[in-house]
Specification:
globular, T-fold, alpha+beta, 274 residues, 6 helices
Amino acid sequence: MQRREFPAMGTAVELLLDAKLSAGGRLAFDQAEREFERLEAILSRFRPDSELSALNRSGCLEAGPDLVAVTRLALAAREQTGGRFDPTVHDAVLAAGYDRTFDEIAPDGELRAPRPCGGEIRVTGRTIELEPGFRLDLGGIAKGYAVDRACTILSAAGPCLVNAGGDLVGHGRLWPVGVETADGQITLGLEDGAIATSGRDRRHWRRGGTEVHHLIDPATGAPAAGDLVRVTVVAPTAVQAETLAKAVFLGAPAEGPAVLVTADGRTVLTGGLQ
């Protein structure tokens, strides 16, 4: 088993390749790592020179193919989830205090008023136009897109697993994946599919003496309230898993395989995991 780990998109990325050490495997690792770096440079809201930042500054941009593709995926996800997944949460995330990379967030500060979400986005050819007063945050779906792309690259060298901070795709064999529950951990077998987790137990901080987190409810523009702490979803791709995990966390029914952890310490299994 070959392994490589590197930082990207605000998390640790792990690549596994079930093949003997070879020049082809090393090249595949290099290409997959470069793909993460390339996509982060385009899609990060934390980089002032990214295409996404340029779009957010101007409100209209003739964008490259990756920003167009991820924006279209985000629009489809908003439609699919009835607005629970919304890429225009950017300013609401900032109002909650997530205005810099997570490692740099001040532990406490002033609690600001929620910001509205649901802004219009128009994509015509390569041109993306935002409704005035709204900006895009593509963080989760961009990470899923990068995981899917890296897996496609790495799979040319053999069975592989790509894991970006718990958003992962496995290909070519059965991969055991540990998933946290209220009581410890269960192991899921993942084969040619993806897993993503959304939760408020990892990325949280305080504002005005109140604990807040990064998962915004577009209906209120504030960090989501509810009885779920964490949701892990299995889906065909990382983009789909990201979308569904966020939607279920915000109250959508879990119609496929999922692990739900509640605030009162219960673990609920759905779909084929029941």
